[in-house]
Amino acid sequence: MQKISLAIHGGAGTIIKNKMNPSLEKKYLKGLKDAVNEGYKLLKSGSSSTDAVQSAVENLENNPLFNAGKGAVFSANGKHEMDAAIMEGKSLNAGGVCGVSSVKNPISLARLVMDKSEHVLLSGKGAEDFASLMNCKTENEKYFYDEFRHDQWQRIKDTDKFQLDHSPKKTDKFGTVGAVALDSFGNLAAATSTGGMTNKKFGRVGDSPIIGAGNYANNKTCAISCTGSGEFFLRGVVAYDVSCLMEMRGLSLEAACKEVIQKRIKLIGGDGGLIAVDNKGNIAMPFNTEGMYRASIDFTGKEIIEIY
After folding, report:
1. Which of 68, 114, 202, 276 could lock onto 284 through a cystine, CB 3.0 to 4.6 A?
2. Which homologous superfamily is 5-306 in?
3. 134, burial (CB in 10 Å: exposed 0-12, middle 13-18, buried 19+)
4. Listing from the earlier edge strand, what are the strands of the sheet with 5-13?
């Protein structure tokens, strides 16, 4: 029987334990536990890694605590501009969307782009039109409204500032969500979804929907989902870099992740983390920030749910 493993994240950054409300911390831990159990349950039943990561990410998108789907932050125009990507390690098939506003679960639309179109990445109105054609579930602005998110935006509205959730200037950390999995057929998959940055302008897109930067899966090596300073993760082609180090230099999953997160990305000024699973079921969840919302269940059934 092939080993199965799954890991998820809810963002990395300035997460200081003594600034975290105990009640809120409990909610985060429950949100992570629910999502990782949702995905792992599918793996145990024989479902594909693709279905498992999509389900886990949808669970996080439906939780307003995390900056994706229902919890997406406000852009400069007072709207929500969400991005997502999904990839299969067996075929290297992938799908992504960016700048969607009304789709309830952007990761489900990314999956449809992968499965039902000839393209990899759709953006803005075109992505919304495709969502309509595919009968994707949509929601109005009221569904995506969150008072804390709105207050976040109001603090910097009408300025040239934007708020990266992992910025050390803020302790109210939220971020990208993602999942990676190895299924009983030996196939890897990765999924990532985000609301981006508060007060972002000009249709800014980070690393999350970009294959090879924020999301990547290859059965030869590993599946990766990133969270952090998107511009730097784009420049570093972080998700693919981990896979490449494993394939070309023969590094282990742990060593490749450490090289990228603790050395390479820091050298160019980036911060954040990632979750990874290799084709043997090993899991790595490194970060170079003060914390990262993360959870995993490996092939032994060991469960980890941590923030700091």
Report:
1. 276
2. (Glycosyl)asparaginase (3.60.20.30)
3. middle
4. 121-123, 94-100, 82-88, 188-194, 177-182, 5-13, 291-297, 303-306
Q: Model pTM?
A: 0.92
Closest-CA residue to 105 (of 88, 83, 76): 83
Tokens of 68: 């994706």
C-alpha of 234 from chain center: 14
236 in Cβ contact with 259 (< 8 Å): no
Structure tokens at 244: 């490449």
| Residues forming the active site | 176
DSSP H stretches of helix in the chain: 22-44, 49-61, 106-116, 124-133, 141-144, 147-156, 230-236, 238-249, 253-258, 265-267
Q: What is the pLDDT of residues 53-89, one digit of tens each?
A: 999 999 999 999 999 999 888 777 778 889 999 999 9
- Sketch the domain layout of the chain as residue ranges: 5-306
- Tell me how far apart the alpha carbons of residues 276 and 278 are, in angstroms, rounded to a whole number: 7
